[in-house]
Every structure is written in C-alpha cells, then in structure tokens.
Specification:
Elements lengths: L1 E5 L6 H18 L4 E5 L14 E3 L18 H6 L4 E4 L2 H5 L5 H13 L3 E6 L3 H4 L3 H10 L11 E5 L13 H15 L4 E4 L7 H5 L6 E4 L6 H12 L1
Parallel strand pairs: 1-2, 1-8, 2-3, 4-5, 5-6, 6-7, 7-8
This protein binds 2-phosphoglycolic acid (PGA).
2-phosphoglycolic acid binds next to β8.
Length: 235
C-alpha cells in the first residue's frame, strides 16, 4: 500500500522537519510498514536517508543532470539529498505550469534512466468527465503517450482534475471503473487515487479491488492527520 503526501507549495524547512519527525515517530512506534512517501517543496527537502520509514520525494525536477536551466533543479541536486522518487504529470504542472505531454515524457524517460521511483499522475477535466466513461478513458490513455508503462518502478495516480483540492472526491464507483480499466492494461503497476482524499472517504476508496494507495494533498498537510490516514488505510 502506498500512502503519499503531496505538500505542493506548502510548508517550509522547519515545519517539514517537524512533520517528518512526527511521522517517523508514529511509524516506528506503530510498527506500520506501508510504503509512505512525502513530497515537500524543494527548499524544505531533507536527506532521503534520514527517515528510514519514509520515502522523501521531489514534486518536480528538470530532465538533466545539471546545466543552464535557470530556476530548475536536476539530478545532481536531487542526488545530494539521496532523493530517488518523483512525481511526474501532476495536473497542476500540466495546467498551471504548462508542461506538455512531450516534455512530461522527456521527464519520465530521464527519471527512468536514473532508476527513480515514479508516481505518474493522470486525470481528466470536468468537461471530459461530463462526456462519460469512454471519453475519460480516451483522455487518460492519451496521457500515456511517450510513457513506458513496463517500467518496474512505476506507480500511476488517477487524479480527476475536478476532484483535486475541491473537497469533493470522485464517487467510489467512478474511481473503481477507471482503476479496473487501468489495471487491465497496467497489470501489476500499483494504482493510486488522488483528489480530495480525507479521513471520511479513505476507507471506501482504499478498499476498492484495483486501488493500491492514495496521493493526498490538503488532508495530508498536518502530520497528525496524515498519520490518521495511514492508520485508516491499515484496516
Ligand atoms: P488534494 O490534492 O488531496 O488536496 O485534492 C491531491 C493532489 O493534488 O495530489
């Protein structure tokens, strides 16, 4: 089971360290052995090997070891922090930061060549959802253009855009339908759901046959609440 916390542009260095200390303590004392990942902002990155029970990941990176890419960070900088897992394709990067499928595929290929664990995000906008399930699947498959789905360190997060940060998660039947169809093709690749996951809806989402975990934003911003989510996911 993968339970991942995406901080986005929240938290700073001190609060991230306090968060990770609390999380590590919780995991140590509870004995829970799930695959727990936290994605802080770059300025709050801490060495990935400081917390044995938590994988610290990067929300973003530029697909180069180093070079002239003002404002970006590459593999050299992530290596210094022993960061070996990354998010790629998040809808906020696709929409707000204007990342194209072509560029996303380049990032994916670069991450794969570094053997990084990848959570690859896909998800449809509301207007596509309104056109029904087959339209959704057509949209989602297009987000796999240039993506090697046979990569062994891949997990895929289905995150309907209209459910992200809105407080309104997708219906469990709709999540199940999409994850089942993805599973047919992606076989043993772990599948996550993301989009307004919280302590109320987690149990029903995580119980779905094809759901192997969740990617959480808002509800994971406080360590205590993230620990609660991890606990619920064990049941
Ligand atoms: P949310 O964000 O849980 O706040 O909806 C999820 C995500 O963007 O990964």
């Amino acid at each position: 089971m993968i339970i991942a916390a995406n901080f986005k542009t929240n938290h700073a260095r001190e609060s991230t360290a306090a968060y990770l200390d609390a999380l590590e303590f919780f995991l140590n004392t509870s004995g829970i052995k799930s695959d727990i990942r936290v994605y802080p902002p770059f300025t709050a990155l801490l060495r990935g090997d400081l917390y044995p029970n938590v994988k610290i990941g990067a929300q973003n990176f530029y697909p180069a070891i180093n070079g002239a890419y003002t404002g970006e960070i590459g593999a050299q900088q992530l290596d210094e922090f022993c960061i070996k897992n990354v998010l790629i394709g998040h809808s906020e990067r696709r929409i707000v930061l204007k990342e194209t499928q072509d560029f996303i595929a380049k990032k994916y290929t670069f991450a794969l060549s570094n053997d990084w664990e990848i959570i690859y995000c896909i998800g449809e906008p509301k207007e596509v959802r309104d056109n029904g399930f087959e339209a959704v699947m057509e949209y989602l498959w297009a987000e796999f253009d240039g993506i090697d789905i046979n990569y062994q360190n891949l997990s895929v997060a289905y995150e309907p855009i209209w459910a992200i940060g809105t407080g309104v998660s997708a219906q469990t039947e709709d999540i199940a339908e999409v994850l089942d169809r993805l599973k047919d093709k992606l076989k043993s690749t772990p599948l996550l759901y993301g989009g307004s996951v919280n302590t109320e809806n987690l149990q029903s989402i995580i119980s779905l046959k094809s759901c192997d975990g969740v990617l959480v934003g808002n509800a994971a911003l406080e360590a205590a609440n993230f620990c609660k989510l991890i606990q619920i996911a064990q049941k």
